[in-house]
Amino acid sequence: MKALVQRVSRASVTTGGHVVASTGPGLLVLAGFGGSDSGDDLDWMARKLANLRIFSDSRGAMNLSILETGGSFLVVSQFTLHADTEKGRRPSFIGAAAPGAAETLYRLFVQQLTGFGLPVETGVFGADMQVELVNDGPVTLMLESPSERRS
Predict the structure, then answer these.
(1) How far is the first Cα of the chain from the last one, in angstroms, to the nearest whole number?
(2) Can you tell me the distance from the alpha carbon of 142 to that of 124, in angstroms, rounded to the nearest whole number?
(3) Residue 71 DSSP symbol
(4) Active site (annotated) includes residue 130
(5) Which of 79, 109, 112, 122 is catalytic?
(6) What is the helix (H) or strand (E) element at residue 66, kind and residue range?
(7) pLDDT per residue over 77-124, tens digit each?
(8) Is the pLDDT of residue 150 over 70?
(9) Active site includes 85?
């Protein structure tokens, strides 16, 4: 699993001209699922995101996690994180999970994040979405689960 994570002041997802999800301070997570991802990858990523110390403490140092700040998550499926652009001009998405499997992994991942007791908003899986955000910092990180780093 790959996740592009952005610390945000606010973020929203619009599809079909309607805002379907929005969040205040927290994390926007663009989540991409690979063909070999498992429950272990989802668990690792959910724990990593919940405990990642990227929020400012009273001195302005990044020492607090989203669990400590009480923020929220906005999770958007993003198969293009698995794009292979090594050859040619058109990306290959062969490493991405098939749509049915990816949707199952997406729903399980959201469920795992919800288990931390923080609000979790979501985009619409497989839809054409417009994502708006105010990146706080800016802080943007690319995370890969252990199985991604082995492949």
Answers:
(1) 11
(2) 22
(3) -
(4) no
(5) 79
(6) helix 66-69
(7) 999 999 999 999 999 999 999 999 999 999 999 999 999 999 999 999
(8) no
(9) no
Which pTM does this prediction carry? 0.95
Structure tokens at 64: 């607090």
How many domains does one find in the chain? 1
Name the active-site residue from 6, 14, 78, 112: 78
Give the number of C-alpha atoms closer than 13 A to the C-alpha of residue 13, restricted to the C-beta side: 23
**How do residues 13-31 score in pLDDT, each as one tens digit?**
999 999 999 999 999 999 9
- Whether residue 131 contacts residue 78, with contact meaning beta carbons closer than 8 Å, is answered with no
**Single-letter residue type at 75:** V
| pLDDT tens for each residue of 31-69 | 999 999 999 999 999 999 999 999 999 999 999 999 999
Query: What is the distance between the alpha carbons of residues 2 and 17, in angstroms, rounded to a whole number?
Result: 28
Distance CA 48, CA 144 (A): 10
For residue 15, what are the domain limits? 2-150
Q: What is the pLDDT of residue 82?
A: 94
| Residues whose CB falls within 8 Å of the CB of residue 131, separated by 6 or more in sequence, listed in order | 11, 12, 13, 28, 30, 76, 123
**Active-site residue flag, 79:** yes
Q: What is the CATH number of the domain that holds 56?
A: 3.50.80.10
